Give the backbone structure.
Amino acid sequence: MSGHAESRAVPVLSLAGLVAVWAVAALITHDAQLLPAPWQLVAPFADELRNGALLYHLGMTLWRVACAFVIAMSIGVALGLAMGRLTGLNRWLDPWLVVFLNLPALVVIVLCYLWIGLTDVAAILAVSLNKIPFVTSVLREGARALDPGLDAMAKVYGISGRARLRHVVLPQLAPFIAGAARSGVALIWKIVLVVEFLGRSSGVGFQIHMYFQLFNVGMVLVYALSFIAVMLAVEWLILQPWERRVRRWRSA
């Protein structure tokens, strides 16, 4: 088996092993209400897919994830770059960053719902506020790691500030942006589910809340695993190839 084929096969085999462990655990418990086996979820999954509920709630959650991701990455990248390049600004904002990094996500969610109401605006804002400090801290370290020699050379050749940002700064920051994006997606969708669990009437988190109240473990797993499958597809098909591409110049 070639190295490329092996790198593709390993994640699949790893997940297959996880499913096997789940199947063994289900057989040991021997209680479908407590832990249904993987094959026992096929029928309810097909029913939810057929009646459109699964696609609708997946779509609502993905929409909230996408909105929060764009907002958090945009503000976090700009703020992190500014704090990494401007010592005075970093000195003033660093205590704020520490506070928000250590502020529990649940507190932010509850406060946004109390102040704004049980709306999508509050939900997306709560998720974004939880993500922005993380992106900012990662990009600040990236900005501090920029090669001053390249910046000085660009100034010597009279390259404009916009061109310098595009051709000198951003290529060096790309691995940090990619790392923040990958870990950020994982963090955001988890917080989105909590937000939906607490105060929305649609989405995967809302469905999990409803089936939790009904003590339906099977349907909780159907919705949870469906969304995990979607996020794994995003990770493998979009984020990982993009990260490899932006890191390619370092090994050239």
